[in-house]
Amino acid sequence: MTAASAASAGERFGARLAKAVAARGPLCAGIDPHPGLIEAWGLPVDVSGLERFALSATEVLAAHAAIVKPQSAFFESFGAAGVRVLERVVGTAREAGALVLLDVKRGDIGSTMGAYTAAYVAEGAAIAADAITVSPYLGFGSLAQCAETAVSAGRGLFVLARTSNPEAGEVQNAKLPDGRTVAQAIVDSAAALNAGAEPLGDVGVVVGATVPPGELDLSRLTGPVLAPGFGAQGATVADLRALFGASLPGVLPASSRDILKHGPEQAALRQAVERVAEVLADPQENGQ
Questions:
Q1: At 7, is the secondary structure helix, strand, or coil?
Q2: Cis peptide bond prior to 264, omega within 30° of 0
Q3: Given pLDDT bands bounded at 50, 70 and 90, which one contains residue 232?
Q4: Which of 56, 61, 89, 145 has an alpha carbon 20 to 30 Å from 181's alpha carbon atom?
Q5: Do 55 and 92 contact (CB within 8 A), yes or no?
Q6: pLDDT of residue 181
């Protein structure tokens, strides 16, 4: 059963993700057609180069990773033709058996958020991803309808909580009147939406792998954690353990350019993604 058919058959995203991770490991492989990477592959920075880069990478990564994460902005920058390539990437990834987390970071209110919901996670969505990234910084409540629609359609959300960019701290670590940080309040709101879900809820959070340990309490989340920053940005398995706990339950370390730099040869790409998967699965690396 493909990801699309599983969603339409009513299986929850969290349950599908747990099965995929059990079968393939926790790696979230990014598909970021950055102009510099396209050039490094010896391709022109135009739609033809984008297509060759993105589809070639997807064929390899989606055959090995539980979940792949196309970065929508790099496709959108090529206009309508780039979005058509993105649609093909989503389809190709599903045919290879991977779940698709579309990194769009949408966040708005009212009918505008409704339109984003219809585009990505509603039944019959134009670019139907298994999950998308969303921003809660117009208020977590602005995501309520999107979350309800996504969950009812068998899809999921990853809500930005504590990102690793240097500018994030002034907002995400700001204290609320009840003493919690903004980031902790976002995690707690996501946890409320996952209440009672097993083995994983459908609403995850994004927490950078380079964030200092101890800032967040994730113990009640009962949902997945997308952890960008693993690999090229410097975070190691030891850093993941220090931040999220030794067993890394529900944690999806995300790596993109650290893998993609090994293209364009598909054999080299395959070896790179397999090496990362082996590191994440190594009992010694994981302290078991």
A1: helix
A2: yes
A3: low
A4: 145
A5: yes
A6: 98
> Residue 84 to residues 87, 88, 97, 114: CA-CA distances in angstroms?
5, 6, 20, 22
Is the distance from CB of 85 to CB of 31 less than 8 angstroms? no
Two tokens, residue 136: 């809660």
What is the value of pTM for the model shown? 0.94
pLDDT in tens, 19-56: 999 999 999 999 999 999 999 999 999 999 999 999 99
Over 84-125, what HEC string results?
HHHHHHHHHHHHCCCEEEEEEEECCCHHHHHHHHHHHCCCCC
CA pair distance 125, 122, nearest whole angstrom:
5
pLDDT digit string, tens, across residues 117-164: 999 999 999 999 999 999 999 999 999 999 999 999 999 999 999 998
Asked if 69 and 28 touch (Cβ cutoff 8 Å), the reply is yes
What is 203-268 written as a DSSP string? EEEEE-TTSPTTS---TT--S-EEEETBSTTSB-HHHHHHHH-TT-TTEEEEESHHHHTT-SSHHH
Measured over the CA atoms of residue 262, residue 263, residue 266 and residue 270, the dihedral's sign is positive
Residue 81 has pLDDT above 80, yes or no: yes
What are the angstrom distances between the C-alpha of 211 and each of 75, 118, 189? 28, 33, 20
The two structure tokens encoding residue 144: 């309520």
Residue type, 165: N
- Amino acid letter, 11: E
Residues labelled as active-site residues: 105
**Alpha carbon of 62 to those of 37, 77, 81, 96, 190: distances in Å?**
19, 23, 22, 6, 27
φ, ψ of residue 132 in degrees (nearest 5)? -135, 160
